[in-house]
Design goal:
Layout: H1 3-9, H2 12-44, H3 47-83, H4 87-114, H5 116-122, H6 130-142, H7 144-159, H8 163-187, H9 191-215, H10 233-306, H11 310-337, H12 339-344, H13 351-364, H14 371-383, H15 387-408, H16 410-413, H17 415-454
Helix pairs in contact: 2-3, 2-8, 2-9, 2-10, 3-4, 3-6, 3-7, 3-10, 4-7, 5-6, 6-9, 7-8, 7-9, 8-9, 10-11, 10-13, 10-14, 10-15, 11-14, 13-17, 14-15, 14-17, 15-17
Length: 462
C-alpha cells in the first residue's frame, strides 16, 4: 500500500499510532536537549546556573519559533500538495523553505550576539545570574543554522510519510547531547558553557544526518541545493501564513517567559526563577508527547482534508484528542504522587529550592488533564490550512490570558499568584477551543452533506 492509499484508506487509529509514536519519541528526545542541560547544570553548577538557563530559555523559544514558522508551515503545505498529487509544487515549497531557514538563521545569530547583554537583562537576569546566561546563550546562538536545518527538514521528512527516519534524526541528536553534557560539564569543568557546546554539537550531527537523507536520494521529494537561493516570495508567503500559528505560539511562549521571569525576580528572586526552571522542564517532558501526536495527526488531517474525506478528518482529531488527554492526565498524576522525586532530578542538595519547585509544580499543573485537548484543537486548524483560527487558539492560552493574569494576580497573591495564572489560563483557553471545534465540526458536516447531495446517482442498467 503506497503513501496515498495509507493516508486515505487505512484505519485511522492504527495509522495515527504508527505516525505518532515516532513523532512522540522524537519530541521527547527534543525535550531532552533542554531538560538534560538543566539536570546536569543543576547538579554540576547549582541554582544560579539553573537560573541562567531559565533566563536563556525565551531566546531559545524565539530560535525555535523561526524554525517552526518555516519548517511547520512548509510541512503542512507539502502534505496538502502531495494529497492533491502536485509533487513538483511540493519540491518547490521545500527548496524555498530551506533558503528561508538559512537566511533567518544568519540574521537571528548576528542580532542576538550584538544585543546579548541587554537581551539577558530584559529576560530577567540579575547581576549574579547574568554571567551564566551570557555563557550559555552566546554559544547557543552560533548553532542556530544547524538547529533550523535539522528541525525544519526533519518535519518535511515526516510529511512524506517517513516518521521512522524523522525519529532517528531526533534520537541521534539527543543521544549525542546526553553523552557530551557530563563530559563537558563534569570532566572538562566547562559549566553552563559545556552544556551549550554539547547542545550545538548535537544539532550539527542532526543537521548533517537530515541533509544526507535528502542528498543521497532517499527522499520522495528532491532537494536541489542550487535552487535554495531562488526564493519565490508568493510561495514564502503561503508557508508563512500556515506556519504563523506555531510561530506565534512560540513567540508568545518567549514573551510569556519574559514577563514571568520579571515577575519571579520581583516576587521571589533568583531562587524562584530556578524553581520555575525545574517546573518548565517537568512540564516539557509531558507536553512534548502531545506535540508528537499533533505531528502524527497533521499529515493525515491535511491529506484527507485536501482529498475531501471529512469523516476521516474528524476521526483523526477525536483520536488525537483522546491520546493527548490520556498523556496529560498521566502527567498530572505524576505531579500529584511523585513531585519531590521529579524535582530531585535537578539537584537534591538545596532543600529550599526543592520545596519551592514542588509548590510551583503542583499549582501550575493543576488543570493539566484538559490541556491536551487545547493543544490538539489549535493544531487541528493549522492542519486544515486555517492559520488565523489556529493562531488565535494558540495565543489565547499563552498571550491573551496568561500574560495579563501573570501580571495581575501577583499584585494580590504575591508569588503564588504567578503560579496560579497558569491553571486559570488553561481552563479558559480549553473552553474557547471546544467552542471553535464544535463550529468547525458543524461546517465539515455541511460540506460532507453538500458533497453527497451534488453527487449524481448512478444510472440504472437498461
Amino acid at each position: 500500500m503506497n503513501r496515498a492509499e495509507r493516508l486515505g484508506q487505512e484505519k485511522i487509529l492504527p495509522l495515527l499510532v504508527r505516525f505518532s509514536i515516532p513523532a512522540i519519541v522524537g519530541m521527547l528526545v527534543q525535550a531532552l536537549y533542554n531538560v538534560v542541560d538543566r539536570i546536569f547544570v543543576g547538579n554540576g553548577v547549582g541554582p544560579l546556573g539553573l537560573a541562567g538557563l531559565t533566563v536563556a530559555f525565551p531566546v531559545m523559544l524565539v530560535q525555535m519559533a523561526f524554525s517552526m514558522l518555516i519548517g511547520l508551515g512548509a510541512t503542512a503545505l507539502i502534505s496538502i500538495r502531495l494529497g492533491e498529487n502536485r509533487q513538483a509544487e511540493a519540491e518547490q515549497i521545500m527548496s524555498n523553505a530551506v533558503g528561508m531557514l538559512i537566511l533567518i538563521s544568519f540574521v537571528f545569530t548576528v542580532s542576538g550576539i550584538a544585543f546579548l547583554d541587554p537581551l539577558m537583562r530584559l529576560m530577567g537576569a540579575s547581576d549574579a545570574v547574568l554571567p551564566y546566561a551570557r555563557d550559555y546563550v552566546s554559544i547557543i546562538l552560533y548553532g542556530t543554522i544547524f538547529q533550523s536545518i535539522g528541525f525544519g527538514l526533519n518535519h518535511m521528512i515526516r510529511a512524506q510519510g517517513n516518521p521512522k527516519i524523522a525519529m532517528a534524526t531526533m534520537l541521534i541528536g539527543a543521544i549525542t547531547n546526553i553523552i557530551l553534557d557530563p563530559i563537558f560539564i563534569f570532566i572538562f569543568g566547562w559549566g553552563v558553557a559545556g552544556a551549550a557546546f554539547a547542545t550545538v554539537l548535537s544539532q550539527v550531527v542532526s543537521a548533517a544526518w537530515v541533509l544526507s537523507f535528502f542528498l543521497r536520494g532517499k527522499s520522495q521529494l528532491r532537494l536541489d541545493l542550487r535552487q535554495i537561493h531562488r526564493i519565490k516570495w508568493p510561495v514564502v508567503l503561503q508557508i508563512v501564513s500556515i506556519g504563523f500559528a506555531p510561530f506565534a505560539m512560540q513567540l508568545a511562549g518567549s514573551l510569556q517567559n519574559l514577563v514571568l521571569n520579571q515577575n519571579l525576580a520581583h516576587y521571589g528572586g533568583d531562587l524562584a526563577i530556578s524553581a520555575m526552571g525545574i517546573v518548565f522542564s517537568v512540564n516539557t517532558l509531558f507536553m512534548m508527547p502531545m506535540f508528537g501526536i499533533n505531528q502524527g495527526a497533521q499529515p493525515i488531517i491535511g491529506f484527507n482534508y485536501g482529498a475531501k474525506n471529512f469523516d476521516r478528518v474528524k476521526q483523526t482529531l477525536l483520536y488525537a484528542a483522546l491520546g493527548a488527554t490520556i498523556l496529560s492526565t498521566l502527567g498530572f498524576l505524576a505531579t500529584r504522587f511523585i513531585p519531590t522525586q521529579l524535582t530531585a532530578l535537578f539537584g537534591r542538595h538545596d532543600l529550599e529550592l526543592m520545596d519551592l519547585a514542588v509548590q510551583a509544580m503542583t499549582t501550575v499543573m493543576m488543570f493539566f488533564p484538559i490541556i491536551g485537548l487545547q493543544i490538539v484543537g489549535a493544531n487541528f486548524f493549522q492542519a486544515l490550512g486555517k492559520p488565523k483560527k489556529s493562531a488565535f487558539l494558540s495565543l489565547s492560552r499563552q498571550v491573551l490570558l496568561l500574560i495579563p493574569l501573570t501580571i495581575a494576580l501577583p499584585r494580590f497573591l504575591g508569588l503564588r499568584g504567578v503560579f496560579l495564572a497558569y491553571p486559570a489560563s488553561d481552563l479558559v483557553a480549553t473552553m474557547i477551543t471546544l467552542w471553535f471545534l464544535r463550529r468547525e465540526f458543524a461546517g465539515l458536516d455541511s460540506q460532507e452533506l453538500e458533497a453527497v447531495t451534488l453527487t449524481p446517482a448512478p444510472q440504472s442498467e437498461r
